[in-house]
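QUALITY CONTROL LOG
STEP: pairwise intake check
CHECKER ROLE: data steward
CRITERIA: each record must contain a sequence immediately followed by its structure tokens, with no blank fields

ENTRY 1 OF 2
RESULT FIELD BELOW
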Amino acid sequence: MNNLKAKSTVEKRNQSAVGFRVALNILERWGCKNDQIMSIMQLERGKFFNAKKEPTSVKLSADQLDRISYVLNIHSALRIVFSNPENVYGFVSKKNHNPFFNGKTPLELMSTGKFGILHDVYRNIDTMRGGQW
């Protein structure tokens, strides 16, 4: 039984590492600075740089894994809405005058580090898929 538990822990850590690497790549392609990434992911400086260097060495909390999920879902929604990479990766850095964003960029809002904002940014981008904007 201990082998199964150990294997499960290793598998979870490997999955977390893959998710972290993918989310980090997306955030960097969005033009995020390290401080913004740390805020969005709720990672302390040391843990962030350790995770960047060796993703499998860092244990991520459920909250941090949820944040990774939102980054991946936002990226997925952007890929569905936009066909060109300029918009997929540039949208979050562009000022948006729709009611939720009120002239701010999605990245400005996400960089506050508030979990609910990640959800709201995702929800607002996801509605673009249905032409509701």
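ENTRY 2 OF 2
RESULT FIELD BELOW
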Amino acid sequence: MTSDIQNVLRNQFELTWALFEYHLERLTPDDLLWEPAKLCWTVRPDSIGNWRADWSDSALDPIPVPTIGWLTWHIGWWWSTAAAHARGAVPPDRTAVLWPGDLAKTLGWMRALRDQWSHILEDITDLTRPAVFPWPPEARRSTADQFAWVNTELMKNAAEIGQLRLLKAARDA
């Protein structure tokens, strides 16, 4: 049963990644920090040049529209956290996850995370063990649930990036 579920998760991940890669291959440097609305979350260099993401610990209404740069930072943060949990390692603190600062480095980061996750998917032997992220232990979710969540979250973020890319291209046409 584990190998059947593992195959479904792997195939779902590969499909999700292919759709994400479609948009990654078409990004331009100008796409990353394009702000599609007045209320926007983005990434900005701090006083020493580290790129940090806008963030609020309280619920915002309305929710700021993210830039592609912010979305790629967000992917890097949650995926690094999910990978750490899957390996039994300590996840990075949100504030320690920095955006790379340009298109080439961002694409490299996204693809390195993909490779890392592919290895985790290949190496997992017990999809029934309790997941630690993104749910609390009392949720009683399994590692299979966690891996399915990664696929879903990546698909959502890929669609958001794709939509922003298309909106900017239409605006610029």
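INTAKE CHECK: passed for both entries
DESCRIPTIVE NOTE, ENTRY 2: The beta strands are 40-41, 43-45, 51-53, 65-66.
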